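Dear support,

I submitted the protein below through the web form. The confirmation email said the job was done, but the results page showed an empty box. After a refresh the structure appeared. I'm attaching both so you can tell me whether what I see now is the final result or a partial one.
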Amino acid sequence: MSTPRTTAAAPAVGHSLKHLAFHLLTPLLMCLGMALAYEGAFHQPEPHHLKVAVVGATPEARALAGVVQSRAGDALDVTTLPDRGAAERGLRDRDLVGAFLPDTSHPELLVAKANSDTSAMAAEKVFQRVTAQQGVPLAVTDLTTPSEGDPTGQGLFFLLVALSIGSYGSVAVIGAAGAALAMRIRVLVGLGVSLAVSVIGILTAGPVFHVVDHDLAGAWALGWLYSAGVIGIGIGLHTFLKRWTTLAMMVLFVMLNFTSSGGVYRPELQNGFFGGLHSFWAGAGFLEGARSLLYFDGGAGFGGHLLTLVLWLAAAGALVVGAALYERRGRAAASSAVGAGAVEGRDGRVGVARGEGPGVEEEMEESAVAI
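What the results page shows now:
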């Protein structure tokens, strides 16, 4: 025997569907954002001012450089260098992608694949055309030595992915489940979480998979700086954005971060937007800093990449201070309310701050979807 439907059933279903549709908006926006970011960044890699050199002080070398430049147009920036030593310095300083040593029988291309394997491959294709016209093979010499567990040079990018997910995935938990805690306590928890994330990252990248086979302390410090900045920004944003924090963190530290980090293509193979982000975005600061530290003896712009991470951490600190002041003003306004209604309103707000009700679970669920 069926139970008769009540008149309230239809409105209840309608309300539930509206509630469901509202919460489905977040994953749909994530889908759209990921499609736009990843396809926009990677769909058509082409050289843009790829810096290469022809080695030699002879008129023939200068003529060859001019021919290559005229044929390539804006795709290449071709210079000439006097000797092999100057070419090697340019590659070790990460100022060049490739240096071609012309020879009628044994032409050679110098590259530094640890800088970017895909950029080195682009330079190789350019000068393979030159040697193909001469009817001789091109010898490619890599001046860098990859680590045992990272022959392609992509392992550091996947370390960046792990650090990022561990960091932004923790933000919703700290912001929602820890909302009743004072801001300074949440910040201390965030620092502890960033320490744990960075330790997990360096242990897996180092002793487990040998992606990082030396300078473990330096690589770990870069990871902690990066993770602390991400978590600090998330804690600050949560005060203002609440349940939309996960989406904002996805935009900042996945959609724009991974695509501009240089892990797949460096800026010389990307369009201007993502290439421009590479110069100051957090992920690029970590990845390029780690590359400079591990493969270029701590030179090749390491100080600039370290500064990028420090500035992101400083921005996180400023955001956290602003969020703390905002919360303090909110508490002051609540405490000044008079009467039973004001008291009940204040109690309701405290309940939300303490994470009571469905808000905490919803934020955590959306964080899980994002991961």
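Response: this is the final, complete result; the empty box was a page-load delay. Residues 349-358 have pLDDT under 50 and may be disordered.
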